[in-house]
């Protein structure tokens, strides 16, 4: 079957970035390898040679390549999903590009965690993707409707689907959210059913899991991401091996997810109110009168702290560590001094 550029997700946004002569060919990146890229065009799939480190490309990117299959340009992204890399590394790690819909996947069991959902929602808002919460294992034991109500409480008009990932009929619910030519990405913890969903939505049983790398702790993780065609003509990016999501530079996303709280906080007497017992704190007052939920405020404060810390540059975190080291030293000195009394 021949695909057109429109089928691949090409739009006016990318067209306007085409080179004037039009002698370069656009390709959609379907896989990023150590030293090469896989690109899709109406002529099929080819290997492309990157013009910079492949870590600067994401699955879903559009690039322009010359007749020798060398990438000459990476087009500006409509949306970009990224997180802070694992370990002590402060770098940004790209997850996917030009994603329209983010399927935030969790299951109707112990994996369900409101704080984690909020983190993924902040990622969606920050990147410009439309979030849809997918609750799998609705067919198993516990009452799926309860989980749904809890998830829906996170934002007004939040789209929440409950389903059995193994049931082809249930999967139609997801297809409704992605138009042909649009791209969705699946995120969520290990074991929630991402592979099952990917196989069901793309009609392939061979989840390609061939690139294994050691992470910081020496564990093997599957890091390959692929752009796959969904049965109805949309595109799907699975994100295997994403053990934890550390959001970075997502302060606006966090603000959006907690807009009810941030709006209330504008009425605090002090503009830098930490909502920790300051006089005239509107957030504490709202918790008291029941218009804000205490646990949600606590989750907001924690997510804000995490986000700030993840967004520090390496230099800032070194300074913080140094400052902390100095503080410990001076405390030790003080302690010694006091002992002398
Ligand atoms: N009953 C039921 N089982 C499910 C459902 N979704 C997934 N499973 C099962 O849960 C197990 C884990 O599913 P996977 O699709 O491998 O989960 P994953 O998110 O891809 O996990 P990783 O590969 O570790 O990232 C498999 O045994 C699935 O068959 C569901 O909605 N209902
Ligand atoms: Zn306050």
From TrEMBL:
<keyword id="KW-0862">Zinc</keyword>
<keyword id="KW-0479">Metal-binding</keyword>
<comment type="subunit">
    <text>Monomer. Associates with 30S ribosomal subunit, binds 16S rRNA.</text>
</comment>
<keyword id="KW-0547">Nucleotide-binding</keyword>
<feature type="compositionally biased region" description="Basic residues">
    <location>
        <begin position="329"/>
        <end position="341"/>
    </location>
</feature>
<dbReference type="GO" id="GO:0042274">
    <property type="term" value="P:ribosomal small subunit biogenesis"/>
</dbReference>
<dbReference type="InterPro" id="IPR010914">
    <property type="entry name" value="RsgA_GTPase_dom"/>
</dbReference>
<dbReference type="GO" id="GO:0046872">
    <property type="term" value="F:metal ion binding"/>
</dbReference>
<comment type="function">
    <text>One of several proteins that assist in the late maturation steps of the functional core of the 30S ribosomal subunit. Helps release RbfA from mature subunits. May play a role in the assembly of ribosomal proteins into the subunit. Circularly permuted GTPase that catalyzes slow GTP hydrolysis, GTPase activity is stimulated by the 30S ribosomal subunit.</text>
</comment>
<keyword id="KW-0963">Cytoplasm</keyword>
<feature type="domain" description="EngC GTPase">
    <location>
        <begin position="97"/>
        <end position="243"/>
    </location>
</feature>
<dbReference type="GO" id="GO:0005737">
    <property type="term" value="C:cytoplasm"/>
</dbReference>
<feature type="binding site">
    <location>
        <position position="273"/>
    </location>
    <ligand>
        <name>Zn(2+)</name>
    </ligand>
</feature>
<dbReference type="InterPro" id="IPR004881">
    <property type="entry name" value="Ribosome_biogen_GTPase_RsgA"/>
</dbReference>
<keyword id="KW-0378">Hydrolase</keyword>
<feature type="binding site">
    <location>
        <position position="275"/>
    </location>
    <ligand>
        <name>Zn(2+)</name>
    </ligand>
</feature>
<keyword id="KW-0342">GTP-binding</keyword>
<feature type="binding site">
    <location>
        <position position="268"/>
    </location>
    <ligand>
        <name>Zn(2+)</name>
    </ligand>
</feature>
<keyword id="KW-0694">RNA-binding</keyword>
<protein>
    <recommendedName>
        <fullName>Small ribosomal subunit biogenesis GTPase RsgA</fullName>
        <ecNumber>3.6.1.-</ecNumber>
    </recommendedName>
</protein>
<dbReference type="GO" id="GO:0005525">
    <property type="term" value="F:GTP binding"/>
</dbReference>
<dbReference type="InterPro" id="IPR027417">
    <property type="entry name" value="P-loop_NTPase"/>
</dbReference>
<feature type="domain" description="CP-type G">
    <location>
        <begin position="86"/>
        <end position="245"/>
    </location>
</feature>
<dbReference type="GO" id="GO:0003924">
    <property type="term" value="F:GTPase activity"/>
</dbReference>
<dbReference type="InterPro" id="IPR030378">
    <property type="entry name" value="G_CP_dom"/>
</dbReference>
<feature type="binding site">
    <location>
        <begin position="136"/>
        <end position="139"/>
    </location>
    <ligand>
        <name>GTP</name>
    </ligand>
</feature>
<feature type="binding site">
    <location>
        <begin position="188"/>
        <end position="196"/>
    </location>
    <ligand>
        <name>GTP</name>
    </ligand>
</feature>
<feature type="region of interest" description="Disordered">
    <location>
        <begin position="308"/>
        <end position="341"/>
    </location>
</feature>
<comment type="similarity">
    <text>Belongs to the TRAFAC class YlqF/YawG GTPase family. RsgA subfamily.</text>
</comment>
<dbReference type="Pfam" id="PF03193">
    <property type="entry name" value="RsgA_GTPase"/>
</dbReference>
<feature type="binding site">
    <location>
        <position position="281"/>
    </location>
    <ligand>
        <name>Zn(2+)</name>
    </ligand>
</feature>
<dbReference type="GO" id="GO:0019843">
    <property type="term" value="F:rRNA binding"/>
</dbReference>
<keyword id="KW-0699">rRNA-binding</keyword>
<keyword id="KW-0690">Ribosome biogenesis</keyword>
